[in-house]
Amino acid sequence: MIALRFAVPFAALLLAPVGLWVAGVALRTIAMVLAAAIILTASLALEPGNAAVAAVIPFAAASAWAAWHNPPLRLPCLYLAAGSVALALSRGDLEIPFFPPAFLLLTAIHFYYAGFAASIFTARTATALGEQAATPWFGIPRLMVMGAPLALVPATVASRYLEAAVVFVQTLAITAIAGFALLATTGSRRPLRSLSLSIAAACAVIGMAASAIFAASRFGNLYWLPVPELGALHAVAMGVGFSLIGLLAWLEPVPAPAQLDHTRSGASSRVPS
Asked: pTM for the whole thing?
């Protein structure tokens, strides 16, 4: 399966370490997560079973460790851990009512990208905005970005209408946050950051539009739409364009008002509580 071969390793080996580095997490924690990610990736060649499940557990544990020792990052890191639990269940030879392996795998990927990566991107945008992040105009889409990935799981199980509603909310929220990221860099003397965030914002619009079109197609049974192509477009735009390039855009230092006890020595916190 393409998702298992590419989306999971990409998230574990690249997005997780980069996101934690951008957030200012201690190097020892990043090294722990990366080592667990290597084990997880190597295990993807295994057939589903106990060994495949066991190989995912270190990554889930490392993510939970990062959440425990970095309170401002608790929600993003818990998305990493929860996604890993879903991945482990999908790799087991189990029959779980309402949760087939393919659904659990997609849930894991969704938590890695829309949960972890988007939450880190949103928090870094809030840091860059400063006082403007306290306004409802930013606060509402911020809450939507952080809560939508979790809400999508029961919504998908319950009804395609609820699923579509959550997808549309998520589309609006991520697009809005990408716009705020551009606003935060208005007048910036860092052209590389501005260019990277422009690419991330464009990819967010394209990727989430593809997702929204697919969700809308289910209402009218418009299955003539090129679903595989829409899925591939969404994956590339959101995985590479928004998540990776968007996170890399925030690698350059942004002044923050406080320090985390568990961030890298001498580095200021990059994620507000």
From this structure: 0.86
